[in-house]
Every structure is written in structure tokens, then in C-alpha cells.
Design goal:
213 residues; mainly beta; Jelly Rolls; six-stranded antiparallel beta sheet; 46% strand
């Protein structure tokens, strides 16, 4: 197990006047859905989806690539257990387009009475499920992280008053290059983020590298 390292990059703290979509010029709208004028917005120093429009809305960080070993961390200031509420984190995004997006996603969604997690692969914007956990509750203030280290994809949770815990993992070698990171918020504005971190991780077999303290 590797010693935690200070490799974290604060990608965005959204501490600015309301704007978007997209949340700034460093973000571009569209990951799996591509509707003009829809995506993430800055509202009240947080990022969330646009209030109106499609069921899923997202934006990706277009200013830089991360990886091939990569980590994305989101701090949820707001989350409610409303049916279909959801947060999706994306790594290794490439060929981003309505019929061409490739990469991996960690999807945390509220079902009728549970919160299932899933790791999925996107091939030409068509998803294949790689791993799932039937129920892992989340709450406002929690942090969620998605890592790719080699061919291993890992989803992590840090409760507001707890430590990082691995929730699920999968192995897949379809996409191995560096790529973009992104975020989708599903269904409503009840999911909001205050901070997003991203980092390219060093090569090797680390299983715990740079998760934010």
C-alpha cells in the first residue's frame, strides 16, 4: 500500500458569481447528453445542474487531460434521498460526442429506498456495467472519489464524520490513455458540490494514493 501523497489539484471551488452553463470557460457541456444550453451551473458558490431541461446534465473539464492513472474527488454540500437523484463522476473521457463518448463512470443514484453504486464503461456513448453495489447510503457533506490505477477502477466514500472506505471496484483494460474528467448531475438541483479535486497519479500498483484527507 502506497503512502498517501500530496498530488491533489483543486480543480474548482466554484467560489464566484453565478454563471453557466458551463460553470466556466475551463468546462464544456455534454458528456452523455448533448442538448444546447444544458449543463452544470455555478449557483450560490456551488455547482449543480441547470434548473430546467433534460434529466441528466453534465460538463467536463476541457482545460487538461489527467492520467492514465487518475483520481477525481467531489465534495457534496447537498444531497437528498429523492428518487432518481444522482451524481456521476467520469474518468478517461475521450472522443466526447453524442454518439462517440468513451471512458468510465462511477454512478451514485437514489432508487426507491436504496442508493445503488455502479462502475460503468462507455463505448460510443453506450454503457456497460462493470460492477455494482446494491445500497450504500450517502448524505450531504460526504465526499465521493473515483480512481483508475492501472486497469483497476475504484469507487470510494468518505462520510462527513468518517474515513475513506472503498465501496466497489472493477477491472477493465479497454481505455488506457489519459483523458478528460467530468461530472453529471441527474434529475434535479438537490445534488450540489462545493469542491472538485483531480490528479494524475504516479505509475505503479498503488491501491490508495492521493485521496483528499
Amino acid at each position: 500500500m502506497a503512502t498517501p501523497q500530496t498530488l491533489k489539484l483543486l480543480l474548482d471551488d466554484f467560489n464566484r458569481a453565478n454563471e453557466g452553463p458551463p460553470p466556466s470557460n475551463s468546462w464544456t457541456n455534454g458528456i452523455t447528453t448533448f442538448v444546447a444550453g444544458e449543463g452544470l451551473v455555478v449557483s450560490g458558490n456551488k455547482v449543480t445542474r441547470k434548473a430546467t431541461g433534460g434529466f441528466e446534465q453534465g460538463s467536463y473539464w476541457s482545460a487538461a487531460d489527467f492520467g492514465p492513472n487518475v483520481e477525481l474527488v467531489a465534495e457534496m454540500s447537498d444531497w437528498t434521498n429523492t428518487f432518481n437523484n444522482g451524481l456521476h463522476l467520469f474518468l478517461a473521457l475521450a472522443n466526447i460526442g453524442s454518439t462517440s463518448t468513451d471512458g468510465y463512470s462511477l454512478e451514485v443514484e437514489r432508487a426507491a429506498a436504496t442508493t445503488p453504486w455502479a462502475i460503468q464503461r462507455s463505448d460510443n456513448n453506450s454503457k456497460t456495467q462493470l460492477a455494482t453495489v446494491a445500497n450504500q447510503a450517502v448524505a450531504s457533506g460526504d465526499m465521493i472519489a473515483f480512481q483508475r490505477i492501472g486497469n483497476t477502477l475504484i469507487g470510494w466514500l468518505k462520510p462527513v464524520a468518517g474515513a475513506w472506505t472503498q465501496i466497489l471496484s472493477a477491472s477493465d483494460s479497454t481505455y488506457t490513455a489519459a483523458g478528460k474528467v467530468g461530472i453529471e448531475i441527474k434529475n434535479n438541483q438537490e445534488t450540489k458540490l462545493t469542491n472538485v479535486w483531480a490528479a494524475s497519479l504516479p505509475a505503479g500498483s498503488q491501491t490508495y494514493v492521493a485521496l483528499r484527507p
